[in-house]
Amino acid sequence: MAKTDVEPMIHEDALPGEEGKLDPKPDWQPRYAGSARLKDKVAIITGADSGIGRAVAALYAREGADIAIFYLCEHEDAENTKKIVEAEGRRAILVPGDLGNPDFAPKAVQKVIDTFGRLDIVVNNAGEQHPDEDIRDITDDQLRRTFQSNIFSMFYLVQAARPHLNKGAAIINCTSVTMYKGSEKLLDYSATKGAITAFTRSLSANLVGDGIRVNAVAPGPIWTPLNPFGGKPAKEIPDFGKDTPMGRPGQPNEVAPAFLFLACEDASYMTGQVLHPNGGIIVNG
User: pTM (2 decimals)?
Assistant: First the structure.
């Protein structure tokens, strides 16, 4: 790693967290039969071991895609996602590693090409968050690490993937409702999500001439390992998502269809856009 990089903060808290230990379990199962909208496509999905990433992997597989499961260190969860993809009749490979390390992406993408021979979709979903009451509590290591994981990783992965993306390819980035309405206890995280939205819009303009679409999804509060395993104060978990107009957190399989729509030909006239599965929060953007 570059000397300015910071190791993942998996010893400071429980992140990234194990989906198998969550109670209740998140709903990742696709809600409808597939219609071959991604037939024989190949997708990289980061953070696909659990949460939104797992739900996207399951839905993409049902729609006919082979999946490269990029994840940090939750090997059991990743193996379960692989089994889910294979149960849909598609191929999957596990690609563990730190996306915040600039040396990881080129090797990881090459593994995908060596295995599947092509790359059609990149889903930049992985991320981390660390709550702080006071901006003075955000350490330099935490600040650097959050930006490495949440936005630097997207640059690294797109740079590595770009030579293999042809006309018709799609890139979908995961931003957040916090980019639009802010979050008083997630200052560094929200800042990275603002950067992701700007990156999405700028990259879409950069690649539109090559026929590559770039869009984003901005989820609201979704029941995944991210918050219960250190991404939110424990005392706030019982009320997680209750402040949305729908009065509850969303499930990963309520977000995955947004990622599917943006990946397939249904969204052929959309680039530089953001979809908002957030329980009814009006963000005007």
Answer: 0.91
